[in-house]
Structures are given as structure tokens and as C-alpha cells.
UniProtKB/TrEMBL annotation:
Keywords: Methyltransferase, Transferase. GO terms for molecular function: methyltransferase activity. GO terms for biological process: methylation. The lineage of its organism: Archaea, Methanobacteriati, Methanobacteriota, Stenosarchaea group, Halobacteria. This is Methyltransferase domain-containing protein. It comes from Haloarcula rubripromontorii.
Length: 234
């Protein structure tokens, strides 16, 4: 995995959400959470696995809505942040945080109703292996997001210390075929890359987001979107 040592550092875990989801990054947080909720639908009493759960912002959100959810991550400090968040919101009885490798998920086949991963595949060195494991332990649904190759993310990606893996639609189709997953629906968003929004105040970001959304609703906007949300079924 790209940046694995960096990701597991204590200081990174402590500052992760403040750096990414303050200022204009609040818009990103809201959109990503809505994408997860739209894809999974009602979650009460569902058994859900979140791969690469990080600090648990999705894990806790779904637990608050009644899911029985397991959050798995390779970073101990990130998981500790998630445990503290779950305890603070009173949902720790609905959540289990586990340290583990996404390439070898420690669960039997068809163990969960839904398996999802956010902000994960752009760091994956063997995406086919990871997706196959997600498919193996899910009996109904697999949901994930990617950064897109033919988008403004390509320009932004050039300047990132770790870079990101970018995907074309052809590569996604090949991954889904290889994992035995069928595409239910896909949503494409964010003409402007995430890094741009994180650099500007929330009030200013809202204006750019309105323009971004308007252009994104056109055929050209969909082709140039920097992020895609892939909802698939087994």
C-alpha cells in the first residue's frame, strides 16, 4: 500500500480529520457520507464491514443508524480514534474495530450483508486482490470509490507526495468482472479535486461547489469528474 508507514503514524491519526474535513473539506465530508447512505440505504440491523475505516467517520455514522458494523484498518492509531469516537457518541455496542490486512480479511465467505471502502483504492497496489476479498466476504453488496484518470485529479496527483492510483472506466469494468461483481449504479462527481476545496474557506468553497455541481450534471462534467462511487452487487 502507498504511504503505509505515513498512514500509521500517531500524529497523522490525530490530525487526519482536522486537515481533510475542515474549511472547504466539510463539503467533501458531507458528500462522501451521503454517497455511502444513498448506496447502502436503510442499515438498521444490517451486518456491515468497512474496509480501511480510518478514524471511523463512516463506521460511527452507520452505527448511529442501527447497523451492526465492523471497521477494519491497518493503523492502530486510526482505530483508536474510531473507538474514542464511537464511545463518545454512545454507539460502541454496535461497532467492532479490528486491526487487519484488507488483502486477507479475517472473515468467512458471505459473512456481511454489505462491504464498503472509501478513500482506499487510490492507495491500493493490488486492487484486484482487495476487491476479490471484499466480494468474498459479502453476500449482497460491495461499494467503493475511486479517483479517475481523465480528470483534474491527474494534474493534482502530479504534485502529491505519495501520488494516487487513478482509474479509467475500462479498468473498473475489468476489476468488477474479475471479482464477479455486477454494477448496480455509478455516480461521478467533483470536477475540482479535493485538495482545492481543502485550501479555501467553507463559505467560498460552497460557491465553487455550486458551479462544480452544475457542470457535473452535463455529459462533459460526468466524463471529467475526478471521483466515482461504484455500487455493485454479488
Amino acid at each position: 500500500m502507498k504511504g503505509q508507514e505515513w498512514y500509521q503514524a500517531d500524529t497523522v491519526a490525530e490530525e487526519y480529520e482536522a486537515k481533510r474535513f475542515s474549511r472547504g473539506g466539510r463539503l467533501i465530508d458531507r458528500r462522501e457520507k451521503q454517497a455511502v447512505l444513498d448506496a447502502i440505504g436503510p442499515v438498521a440491523d444490517k451486518d456491515v464491514l468497512e474496509v480501511a475505516c480510518g478514524t471511523g467517520r463512516f463506521t460511527v455514522m452507520l452505527a448511529e443508524r442501527g447497523a451492526n458494523i465492523t471497521g477494519l484498518d491497518i493503523s492502530g492509531p486510526m482505530l483508536q480514534q474510531g473507538r474514542e469516537k464511537a464511545q463518545a457518541t454512545g454507539v460502541d455496542d454496535h461497532v467492532e474495530f479490528m486491526r487487519g490486512d484488507a488483502a486477507r480479511l479475517p472473515f468467512p465467505d458471505d459473512h456481511f450483508d454489505t462491504v464498503f471502502a472509501m478513500r482506499f483504492f487510490h492507495l491500493a497496489d493490488t486492487p484486484a486482490a482487495f476487491l476479490a476479498e471484499m466480494r468474498r466476504v459479502s453476500k449482497e453488496q460491495v461499494f467503493f470509490d475511486t479517483f479517475n484518470r481523465f480528470s483534474t485529479r491527474s494534474i493534482y496527483n502530479w504534485a502529491l507526495p505519495m501520488g494516487s492510483r487513478l482509474y479509467s472506466r475500462w479498468e473498473i469494468d475489468r476489476l468488477l468482472d474479475g471479482a464477479g461483481l455486477e454494477l448496480t449504479d455509478a455516480n461521478h462527481d467533483w470536477l475540482l479535486p479535493y485538495g482545492f476545496y481543502r485550501k479555501i474557506p467553507n463559505e467560498l468553497a460552497a460557491s465553487f461547489r455550486s458551479l462544480d455541481t452544475a457542470l457535473g450534471g452535463t455529459p462533459l462534467g460526468e466524463k471529467l469528474a475526478s471521483v466515482s462511487y461504484w455500487n455493485t452487487h454479488v
